[in-house]
Design a protein that fits this description.
It contains 4 helices and 4 strands; from the N terminus they run E-E-E-H-H-E-H-H. The protein is mainly alpha-helical. It has a single domain, classed as Multidrug-efflux Transporter Regulator, Chain: A, Domain 2 (Orthogonal Bundle). The strands form 2 sheets. The chain has a two-stranded antiparallel ribbon with strand order 1-2. A two-stranded antiparallel ribbon has the order 3-4. Helix 3 packs across helix 4. It is elongated and about 60 Å long. The N and C termini lie far apart (44 Å).
């Protein structure tokens, strides 16, 4: 059984295998429903299931993405329409950095083995 801590107010996430409702995501991001619907319209976040706001479900990672989008918009004054691209590029950088670290570890193991 997976451990899941769904404490929206403190945003402490232990496990990523749970979903949050539209209302919970609004509360977690301290954002109005209209604002959050705008993020959905710009494809910054996407519901995993549901056909309307009442039954939309989002991955727990959506809380992180929404907060990142808010910071980008507020701190760097990036327009909402451009934030989806920026978030995707930042995620790709994170993935490449992770892959680079893994490859460096493998290379170091191979070099150590040959010595």
């Amino acid at each position: 059984m997976a451990v899941s801590a769904k404490t929206i107010s403190s945003l402490k996430i232990i496990s990523h295998d749970f979903s949050v409702s539209f209302t919970e995501l609004c509360e977690a991001a301290n954002m109005s429903a209209d604002y959050l619907e705008e993020l959905i319209a710009y494809n910054i976040i996407k519901p995993n299931s549901g056909n309307s706001a009442e039954d939309w479900k989002f991955s727990s990672n959506s809380v992180k993405v929404v907060n990142k989008a808010i910071r980008l918009h507020r701190d760097l004054e990036i327009e909402w329409a451009d934030i989806a691209l920026v978030v995707d590029l930042l995620d790709e950088i994170d993935q490449l950095e992770t892959e680079n670290r893994q490859l460096k570890k493998q290379m170091n193991r191979l070099l150590a083995f040959k010595l």
